[in-house]
Amino acid sequence: MTRAFNFSAGPAAMPLEVLQQAAAEMTDWHGSGMGVMEMSHRGKEFMSIYAQAESDFRSLLQVPRHFKILFMQGGGIAENAIVPLNLSRGGVVDFVVSGSWSQKSLKEAARYCTPKVAASSQASGFKSLPAPSSWQLDDDAHYVHLCTNETIHGVECHSLPDLKALGSNAPLVIDFSSHVLSRPLDWSRVGLAFGGAQKNIGPAGVTLVVVREDLLGHALPVCPSAFDYRLVADNDSMYNTPPTYGIYMAGLTFQWIARQREGDLSGVAALEQRNIAKAQQLYHCIDHSQLYVNEVDVSCRSRMNVPFFLRGDDGQPLLDAAHPRNAAFLDGAKARGLLQLKGHKSVGGMRASLYNAIPLEGVQALVEYLRDFEKTQA
């Protein structure tokens, strides 16, 4: 049986090798007589799984030793509260608003600090990114928040801004939920990075936080102890029971990433080249079509999440999900084993998420279907 290609934005497709290994080890991990879900999180078996996962993640993204890697719970939405609880000191925080997720971050942070909009692309309908040179940064800001890939609007910041060059001494906080491990990161420009696992790492339930050590120890008094980065770091993510099975699955994914090769490249660097090739193929098809349109500025199109619209007979994008042409497109895609292409309910249209686990063959199959469907609408 041929496996379908799952273009879900998250929870998302996982590498088949990882799923198969997890299935083989479900009831007995390495002869321990236990499945991972049954292990004590403080037992030697799980502690070995955790230590390997932490080490592999650090190696894959070349995380410097003065950063702590925390395995937490609550997803990116919880981090919208946990970050200001730990870093804001109740003061000013700058936000770059580039889409739906940074809007949510801004709103949540207002419960714990004084958020300020340093820049926004809302006027463009979140189809572009504000140039860093235009950011109005506050001298008193305790950090600058940037969502480096907006899954709903399909906007990605491909290179991190240098805040020092912009005259700011504040640390940069990035939400890398939807592009983590899809490309290398320049840690010299980052103070903290956070992201849910359910796109490029594993199943929903694990949240990765990578935080510079000097940013620990500043939590507000109201911060729950389980969310205090200092306590979590001091206890090696074992202050409370962590999402053990999710960490195990993440660890298997890290090992899968380390095995990837593209020419002379390996690991994350290999996946970056593969992801560039996948995105280029899909955007080329859309841009050379009369039926499909992607409205994001070419300079900041996401490699991970590609939103697009079908046009109506009048040439305008079809926003209504119930329109017969949209429905026919999704039905035809499902029949070909191309799943979960419906766009987010807040914007409509279609969306193909091209995370690490989506092979080039999946994108080629999607492109072939796009061209075949367009012929039926001529």
Alpha carbon gap, first and last residue: 33 Å
Strand arrangement in the largest pleated sheet:
2-10-9-8-5-3-4
Rg, nearest Å: 21 Å
Q: What name goes with the CATH superfamily of the largest domain?
A: Type I PLP-dependent aspartate aminotransferase-like (Major domain)
| CATH level 3 topology of the largest domain | Aspartate Aminotransferase, domain 2
Largest sheet, strands/sense/barrel = 7 strands, mixed
Q: How many β-strand runs?
A: 16
Oligomer: single chain
CATH-scheme architecture of the largest domain? 3-Layer(aba) Sandwich
Write the H/E string, N to C: EHHEHEHEEEEEEEHHEEHEEHEEH
> Which residues sit in consecutive blocks of at least 5 with pLDDT less than 50?
none
Mean pLDDT: 97
Total number of domains: 2
Instruction: Assign the structural class, choosing from mainly alpha, mainly beta, alpha/beta, alpha+beta, or little secondary structure.
Output: alpha/beta
CATH secondary-structure class of the largest domain: Alpha Beta
- Total number of helical segments? 9
Q: Helicity, in percent?
A: 25-40%
Fraction in beta strands: 15-25%
Shape: globular
Quick summary:
By secondary structure, this protein is α/β, with parallel strands linked by helices. It has helices at 16-24, 44-60, 75-87, 100-109, 229-234, 244-259, 267-287, 324-335, 360-376, and strands spanning 5-6, 67-72, 92-97, 114-120, 144-147, 149-150, 155-156, 172-175, 192-196, 207-212, 261-262, 265-266, 292-293, 305-310, 338-339, 350-353.
